[in-house]
Each structure stands twice: as structure tokens, then as C-alpha cells.
Amino acid sequence: MNADKKTLLVTGGSRGIGAAICRQAGRAGYRVAINYVSDQAAAEALAAELEAAGSEAFAVKGDVGNEADVVAMFEAVDKAFGRLDAFVNNAGIVDVKARVDEMSAERVERMMRINVVGSFLCAREAVKRMSTRHGGKGGAIVNLSSAAARLGSPGEYVDYAASKGAIDTLTVGLAREVALEGIRVNAVSPGITETDIHASGGQPDRVARMQDLLPMKRAGTADEVASAVLYLLSDAASYITGAILNVSGGR
Predict the structure, then answer these.
(1) Which of 30, 36, 157, 160 is catalytic?
(2) Are 178 and 131 in contact (CB under 8 A)?
(3) Which of 22, 72, 193, 245 would give a disulfide with 220, using CB separation of 3.0 to 4.6 Å?
(4) Reading across the β-sheet that carries 31-36, which strands appear in turn?
(5) Into which CATH architecture does domain 7-247 fall?
(6) What is the pLDDT of residues 156-213, one digit of tens each?
(7) For residue 124, which of 57, 201, 178, 48 has the smallest C-alpha distance?
(8) Inter-residue contact 21 to 13 (CB < 8 Å)
(9) What would the pLDDT profile of 4-17 be if each residue is shown by its tens digit?
(10) Where in the chain are the domains?
């Protein structure tokens, strides 16, 4: 184990954008903790892939919508790596297409618990470990927002869009709160991206249906989003905090 290497925790890291971030981080020399909530096989396969390529990686189970799970997840990283230098708040959900007047309280509560409360709790734990105020050595946090925060997602999932609007506000507020404590906080805001999150929301054809409406006439890829995340985590972005970077093909 190389204790001098920077360490990264990615929530929702077993698939899609999260997995792309983990792969790029491994190539960039990070030791990577891959959080998952249900697909243990995918997370462990990704960890094995990174290890085979010369990285240090491990999978850690945890539901970001559960405070005890969040605390246990960060403690597992402490035990495995002994430090935390970078954190990506990536885990999130969408629900099936619906209007606001069709949404149940349970649906909205679940959306906010996972996408908003979970992101706050994870950010809290990351700050506790990174902040010079808490004896840390600084670090970088990147939150995953969405173009939906700007567009509102009418007729599809305004609840999801609202949850990502909260992520934008968290990013700006937290960045200013910890700017003198060695921590940079930024967000990446993807547009239509080719991942299986659309299928999980009951719209597996959404990318094909939407891409002609985009200025670039194509969806983004998970790797294109991950590249933006890795940039914001890197020392090349040392004077950037509180920024929300649109990776949305001009949308």
C-alpha cells in the first residue's frame, strides 16, 4: 500500500458516470473507494479491474439515504486508506416520468432523502476529514448536479430537477464555507448522457429521443463527464471553487 497516494471516495461508483470516474481516477494514480448500494458484483468487479491495472481499490456498501450507512462508509475508507483527499458526491436516483400533480409524498421524500440529504451527509463526513479546522490537510469535493436544475424537467421529473437545484446551492454555499480550510467544492452538471439511469426511470429510449434536440445533436458519454470531474479534483483547478461546470453539449 502506498500511503502517499491521494485517495478518492465515489458514491454510486459501480456503474455509469460513477464507474467512469473511478476508472479515470485509478489511471490518474488515486487509491479509489467504490461505493455501491445493491450491485455488489459490479462494484467488486470494478475494484478488481482497477487493481489489475495497478491501482488500489475496494468496494464499500452503503445507502447514502441512511445516516448510519454514510458514517460507516467513511469509517471504512479511514480504515482502508487512513486518509481522504478527494470525494465525489455522485449517488442519486430518478423516478418514473410524472407530473407534479401525480407525485406521492413518498416519492418526493425518497428523492430528497437520497439526492439531497444523502449529499449533505456525505459532504459533512468529507469535510470532517479534509478540513484544516478538523486537523485535516485539505481536499476537493465534486458534486454531481444536472442540467435539469436549470431546465426544470417539466412533465418528466420536477422532483429530480429540484433535488439537483439543491445540489447547486450546496456547492456554492459549502465552497464559501470551507474556502479557508483547504477544501475546494465544485459541481459538474451533465446534460443528456448515455448511462442506464434513464432505464431506471422507465425511459430506456430517452437518449435516442432527446439527442436531436441538443445543439451538438448527440448525447454525452460517461467518460466526458468523468473527465470534467477529474479536472475539478486536480491541482490544475486549484483556484476554482464554488463553480458549476455544465457538461451538456450546449444545452
Answers:
(1) 160
(2) yes
(3) 193
(4) 57-61, 31-36, 7-10, 86-89, 139-144, 183-190, 244-247
(5) 3-Layer(aba) Sandwich (3.40)
(6) 999 999 999 999 999 999 999 999 999 999 999 999 888 765 455 555 676 777 778 8
(7) 178
(8) yes
(9) 899 999 999 999 99
(10) 7-247
